[in-house]
Prior knowledge:
It is a single chain. This protein is mainly α. It has 2 domains: 8-152, no CATH class; 188-393, Orthogonal Bundle (MetI-like fold), CATH 1.10.3720.10. It is built from 16 helices and 5 strands. The chain has helices at 8-13, 16-33, 35-38, 55-59, 69-90, 97-116, 187-223, 225-240, 243-254, 258-268, 271-284, 288-295, 300-308, 313-336, 347-356, 362-389; strands at residues 45-48, 51-53, 143-145, 167-168, 175-176. The strands form 2 sheets. A 3-stranded antiparallel sheet has the order 2-1-3, with no helix packed on it. Strands 4-5 form a two-stranded antiparallel ribbon. A hairpin with a 6-residue loop joins strand 4 (167-168) and strand 5 (175-176). Helix 15 packs across helix 16 (362-389). It starts with 7 loop residues before the first helix and ends in a 5-residue tail after the last helix.
Amino acid sequence: MPDPVLNPWRVAWARTGVRFGVTLVTLVALAGIYAPFLAGEVALVWRDDQGWSFPVLADLFNRRSYGKPHDLVFNIAGLLLPFLVIGGVLLRHRLGLGRRIVGSVALLVLAVTLCAAPWPGGALWRDRPLAPETLAQRDRATVAVFPVAAFRADTPVPGAALLPPLSRDAASGHRFWLGTDSAGKDVLAQMVTGARISLTIGILATGLSLLIGTLIGAISGFFGGWIDLLLQRLVEIMMCFPTFILVLSVVAVMGRDIFVIMTVIGLTGWAGTARLVRGAYLAESVRDYVLAGQSLGLSNTRLMFRHILPNALAPLLISATFGVAGAVLAESGLSFIGLGDPAVATWGALLEQGRQNIRYAWLIYVPGIAVFLLVTALNQIGNGLREAMDPRHG
């Protein structure tokens, strides 16, 4: 059996819970990235008297269909993902995993910036007429292939309120595979689109909390003394304060925009990370390589973030998995009590629909099981990494 200290990633992957978690999170991520190809009324493939076309590809850059910035990021990620995967495989012997990930993220950021930039002829991502190749015009096509859920997540279907799973739309003949809500919106379309919101909130909110927690924990653990004392009192205040009540208060005052929710969750969830990083820095700051760097005159900033931080990444990665799970639960809880963003489809909003229409079980079990499985998968990954990186669990 490999030594867990020398090869923690292989040991973690050998655990059934980690494999289950990674597989499920990957499926949710793919569903969110390729949501326009899984749910929407714009045709994937279309043929009429003017020839063949792929309307969904042009619709990816239509602000009337995808008006939120995170939608543009997901749409471009979906287009680039096959090329990034192929490029990563071809370059695996020349570039390390870290450089390939950084390069992929940089390429994605560049592509999003170029699409949203105000070019002389207008940005590629702009308001355009809605694609004519939709369900409403399907009769004029000789070939029309639509997504599995052939309905928009934010558009009610007339006369389709609270239909059970596997029902058909009387006008188009397409099925509501998971039923509809009280407004007549397709549940499957909302679940697929809601995967984007869960991932966005989880990643951005956790990233913000990791950034704040890492800075405070690093400064506290490296310098010690009165700086450590002061910062730890701040950490204890944040840990004792009822975070969810603070989130409720800020969202109620500043509005229910999805980015406000992300920011608030990130700004209130860094205390645990700060303590983890502080402990790692306390252990690393007395090691020989740090003392050697100080004797060579290296700056504190270089020692903290160039030399010590890479050796303190293990607790950060573990904290990140639990942080994403907590952020998903926090957003679902806010939406469940009616404080989510009403402009976007989320799993928590569907749960709130189930609370209002408790006799319609699919509005409760479908989003409830999805939240449960995603949070369980993230926790399984976190537990597996924690045990694999802890020598006592060898």
